Automatic annotation (TrEMBL):
Upper classification of the organism: Archaea, Methanobacteriati, Methanobacteriota, Stenosarchaea group, Halobacteria
Transcription is among the record's keywords: no
Protein name, per record: DUF420 domain-containing protein
Alphabetized UniProt keyword annotations: Membrane, Transmembrane, Transmembrane helix
TM segment ranges: 12-32, 44-67, 79-97, 117-141, 162-183
Length: 185
């Protein structure tokens, strides 16, 4: 199985990216039929706060993973990046659950802030979140299908650098969006 996946990393990356984006756009677009997901009491109301904490933790683990690989500590790098991936998966699962049940949150602040700060920040956050998905999948698939000694000879280092930067900025902007929606306004 690993050998077959190894030969098809770009195709698998594309397939996983399309599936992931379809799930997100389907949930945001209200395509999840009512009644499919159970409405768990207070969970929906705390998800934005939990997701902000998950984003902060992901920033920490990604940063630690980058620092670890710069020190040639592959074991810690792998552990940190897999943790970041798990944090992101949990974030996404909670986000899709909440958005499917409640829809998007309306901005409650001043119109000037909405137009000139919130919307541009949200747009860049969404764009970077979408752009990082194939890079993250590609780096993960390369790491999962190649030995540690082979990885430097693959596109893993390049894809990983791009993924880390996009991921970090997207998570940071996501926290800024959260602060505007749930704390400041």
């Amino acid at each position: 199985m690993q050998l077959q996946a190894r030969e098809h990393v770009p195709a698998l990356t594309g397939l996983l990216t399309v599936i992931s984006l379809a799930l997100v756009f389907g949930a945001v677009g209200g395509m999840v039929p009512e009644g499919v997901l159970p409405h768990v009491g207070g969970l929906v109301s705390v998800i934005p706060h939990v997701n902000a904490a998950l984003s902060l933790a992901a920033i920490g683990t990604i940063s630690y993973g980058v620092a670890s690989i710069r020190r040639n500590n592959v074991v810690e790098h792998r552990r940190a990046m897999l943790t970041a991936t798990a944090l992101f998966a949990l974030f996404l699962l909670l986000y899709l659950y909440r958005i499917s049940l409640e829809g998007t949150t309306e901005f409650g602040g001043p119109e000037l802030v909405y137009q000139y700060l919130y919307l541009p920040m949200l747009a860049v956050h969404i764009l970077l979140a979408m752009l990082c998905i194939p890079f993250v999948y590609y780096a993960l698939l390369l790491a999962g299908t190649h030995s540690i000694s082979e990885l430097p000879e693959t596109n893993h280092p390049k894809a990983g650098k791009v993924a880390a930067v996009l991921w970090l900025v997207s998570f940071a902007l996501g926290i800024a969006v959260y602060l505007q929606l749930y704390v400041l306004f």
